[in-house]
Amino acid sequence: MFSFFLFFNFMILSWGGQYPLVQNMTVTEGGTANLTCRVEYNDNTSLQWSNPAQQTLFFGDKKALRDNRIELVHASWSELTISISDVTLSDEGMYTCSLFTMPVRTAKAYLTVLGVPEKPEIDGLMKPAMEGDHITLTCITQGSKPAADLRWFRNEKEIKGAKEVNASGKTFTVRSSLQLHVDRNDDGVAYTCKVDHVALTQTPQQATEVLEVHYAPRVEIIHSLAVPQEGQYLKLECMSKGNPPPDPVMWTKDGGELPDLDRMIVEGRELTFTSLNKTDNGTYRCEASNHLGTSSAEYVLYVYDPNAVGQHGTDHALIGGVVAVVVFVTLCLIIVLGRYLARHKGTYLTNEAKGADDAPDADTAIINAEGNHAHAEEKKEYFI
Ligand SMILES: *[C@@H]1O[C@H](CO)[C@@H](O)[C@H](O)[C@H]1NC(C)=O
Ligand SMILES: *[C@@H]1O[C@H](CO)[C@@H](O)[C@H](O)[C@H]1NC(C)=O
Ligand SMILES: *[C@@H]1O[C@H](CO)[C@@H](O)[C@H](O)[C@H]1NC(C)=O
Ligand SMILES: *[C@@H]1O[C@H](CO)[C@@H](O)[C@H](O)[C@H]1NC(C)=O
Ligand SMILES: *[C@@H]1O[C@H](CO)[C@@H](O)[C@H](O)[C@H]1NC(C)=O
Ligand SMILES: *[C@@H]1O[C@H](CO)[C@@H](O)[C@H](O)[C@H]1NC(C)=O
């Protein structure tokens, strides 16, 4: 029984579990890597860690390589853990844990070092850009490993760029470009380039550029009256938009200067007529310019005679009156005709017609009704 136990124990020690166990690791550049090697059953045989260049780092608890970044974390019969701080990309590679049994047993752990992408930079911006320009914005980030991803946003809305990845040593240079045909709507728009990478655990790195676009003015006249009449107040507003903001606008009338009148006031972009006069007829033009160009808008003023406009009103009233009378007469005729037909069919049961109330017979009733009709004719004439 006891010998069996010894034999069993021996089996385990010799073949069952006397193997070093390790794990692959991934560390971000600048971080610390803990290399752990475990043995489940060990007869006090020494453990050793060596680097990808086959240099021994630690033999048991004894430091072998002079490198301040490498320290012992834990050494026991069952475990040898060392740490490498301030990890660089050159630390990447296959590390070996050896158990000095006869023969020596080894386990290999691959240390992956992530390259942190640098803060991206945006190139190719012209400040300011001119409307109509074709520009290419390029965003570059270096030092990523694996290659970072770059994403473009136009005011928070994602847009697609053209990505290009080049290896430079162990890391990657990633650039993404955006072709823009600039117009006035791009003025003030923020273009952001964001870096996505596994080593960026917090908010992604990003760069933002705000476009400034210069463009020639565009002018429009807004008027306060649809049908200007003599004596009315009229305001013409010259709306001009440009970047840089256009000079004060200039008003002209029929190609010449504005007449010098008290009731015509120019204030900023506004031209006001305190009381319109027929002599104000004409083409008014407002002009705005900046260094990129000049633009203008015209307004043709036709001052209506209030009496003529009133005449129009009377005409409408007259037509309305005539239509009303014609409708009234037609209705009367229909009623009278209806009654007439009803009576001649012998239906005397109803006597609704006003004219029929005191009529001795049907014919008189009809005559009375016709009298009403004649009355309507008189009314019609009176209306006209
Ligand atoms: C490495 O080991 C040390 C000591 O046990 C511990 O404080 C540290 O958190 C470990 N680091 C990692 C990345 O596991
Ligand atoms: C390992 O060695 C220590 C003394 O160096 C001893 O006390 C211990 O019992 C040994 N362990 C084994 C499993 O042989
Ligand atoms: C460790 O990494 C190496 C090299 O990348 C790979 O061949 C191996 O399969 C990995 N082992 C484990 C357990 O992931
Ligand atoms: C990447 O490499 C190509 C071809 O080798 C080259 O034309 C290009 O300029 C490089 N781009 C970067 C970002 O280095
Ligand atoms: C319009 O102007 C003329 C000449 O300036 C003046 O005689 C006339 O009274 C004005 N009409 C009105 C309605 O103000
Ligand atoms: C105003 O303009 C109308 C049409 O253009 C024209 O018939 C009228 O004579 C003009 N009146 C004056 C005072 O210029």
TrEMBL record:
Residues 20-112, 120-212, 217-302 form the Ig-like domain. It is found in: Membrane. The chain crosses the membrane at residues 317-337. Residues 1-16 form the signal peptide. The keyword Ribosomal protein does not apply. Pfam families: C2-set_2, Ig_3, V-set. Keywords: Disulfide bond, Immunoglobulin domain, Membrane, Repeat, Signal, Transmembrane, Transmembrane helix. It is a single-pass type I membrane protein. GO terms for biological process: homophilic cell adhesion via plasma membrane adhesion molecules. GO terms for cellular component: membrane. The keyword Repeat applies. Belongs to the nectin family. PANTHER family: CELL ADHESION MOLECULE 2, IG-LIKE DOMAIN-CONTAINING PROTEIN. This is Ig-like domain-containing protein. It comes from Dicentrarchus labrax.
